Amino acid sequence: MYRALGRNRLIYRSLISSYVKTGLIDKALQVFDEMTQSDCRVFSIDYNRIIGVLVCHSRFELVELYYDAMIPKGYSLNSFTYSRFICGLCKVKDFRLIDKLLQDMNRIDVVPDMWAYNMYLNALCSECLVDMALRVLSHMPENGRDPDVVSYTTVISGLMRAKRFDQAVQMWESMIQKGLRPDANACRALVLGLCSIGKIDLAYEITVGVMKLDFSTSVYNVLVNGFCKAGRLDKAQVIVSFMRKNGCPPDLVTYNILLNHCCDKLMLDEAEKLMKIMKRNGMIFDSYSYNQLIKEHNITPDVVSYNAMIGGFCKASRVHEAMNLFEQMKTEGVYPDEVTFKLIIRGLLHENKIATACMVWDQMMDKGFTLDRDISDTLINAINSKDSSSTSNGKEQGKLVVTS
């Protein structure tokens, strides 16, 4: 009889496996239910398999039912299945059931793997449940899992998003003391958060100043940008020099940060030097990194660089030099975008060069770009004013009529 039951169990398992492989999960559940209600002995491995299947196929409306039915019968999940179960629940943010699983695991002395712990920490932080994440992190060593660099950096990032900067710095220092080496993303998150509240020196001190790690260019660029925003170009240039010495040469993002700072502060001679360096180094990068930093889109770094210079010249009432740069960029195959045209027209209007402004406006419309309403109104008023003042010999010239 025992052999017959064993053979039936193998048949049930084979059918379940076959249905799962073909994606017929409901059929597999039906066979599993028949097996549990038959005379065949069911083992924990059978529940591990069926619950694993339900988690894998995101059938969370059923998985808790099967789990609850399993526990009173004395069956249990192994660490792997529990861990995958937790990971699946993290995706749907079912923290109630995760907490229930962790309590059950604690009772039978089973511990989630690091992947599950880190997924859980990330899910908590993404939902702004940082205090809960801190409790989970603090209990991990008691459960036999020491937090790794991913655990710490996940919670640090959560603290930064919650603007709990002092706690983030304390946790960062604790992580370093434990000998864990943070990755570039963690460094960038910490530096960016500290720079956003003006703690640039602290950001420098706890990263570049203390750790002496080989940081990525993006981390250095956040520091350079922070010091430029604070008006400390000298410190920004020190970091650029440090980058070169440490085998991490400045990229186009670095130079564009410096370039925009110089143009904004009307340090145009310094900006021209930077442009020459950029051209000499033949920098050709995609626009993603820099666009993320300045929150601009659909423009290339070359256009960004030229626009910064043109904007600086116009701001300094040196529109003639801005026009020279406007022509130069076209000869070098860098095509003006909508921002370029607006900067030029605004600068020309400021210096009352109406005819040239109209010429640039024509070019702009040929490219399919449009002016903002305020610039358009200013230009039209300037044209009408010029027309009315140029009437002579009793011949009244018609005003420009614009329909909006």
Automatic annotation (TrEMBL):
Keyword Repeat in annotation: yes
Tell me where the PPR repeats sit in this chain. 8-42, 78-112, 113-147, 148-182, 216-250, 251-285, 302-336, 337-371
User: What UniProt keywords are attached to this protein's entry?
Assistant: Repeat
In terms of domain of life, where is this protein from?
Answer: Eukaryota
For the keyword Repeat, the answer is: yes
State a single Pfam family of this protein.
Answer: PPR
| InterPro entries per record | PPR/CCM1_RNA-binding, PPR_rpt, TPR-like_helical_dom_sf
- Signal sequence residues: none
Tell me the protein's name. Pentacotripeptide-repeat region of PRORP domain-containing protein
| Native species | Mikania micrantha (bitter vine)
